[in-house]
Write a structure and sequence with these properties.
By secondary structure, the protein is mainly α. It has a single domain, classed as Helix Hairpins (Orthogonal Bundle). Helices cover 86% and strands 0% of the residues. Helix 1 crosses helix 2. Belongs to the bacterial diacylglycerol kinase family. Keywords: ATP-binding, Cell membrane, Kinase, Lipid biosynthesis, Lipid metabolism, Magnesium, Membrane, Metal-binding, Nucleotide-binding, Phospholipid biosynthesis, Phospholipid metabolism, Transferase, Transmembrane, Transmembrane helix. Its cofactor is Mg(2+). One of its GO terms (biological process) is phospholipid biosynthetic process.
Length: 125
Amino acid sequence: MKQNKFSILKRIKSFGFAFNGLKILIKEEHNARVHLIAAISVILAGLYFDITMMEWLAVSFAIGFVITIEIINSAIENISDFISPEKNDSIKKIKDLAAAGVLMSALTALVIGLIIFIPKISILI
């Protein structure tokens, strides 16, 4: 079995593929844009409320978690549509499960956001 030698050029190209995937995600996936707007809003709220380092860690993880699961969901949807362009109950089940993953990640992020921001907002009220 032939092993490929390490190539810095190939590693740099792989980043290009990844950034292209992000570009596709933002351009083609409506829900990803919603998540991006939510992430920007939370970051701005974090700056406004001067959240702690630990709160930034939680917020950063939550944002990354949701966007990562959205990327995986989009990949699953695309490969499913490629494999079976026509309606298929098995493909529907696969896509519904992937969408449930996004829902769970978004709900987890929402809970994290509520835990962090409700006390800060209640002080303003």
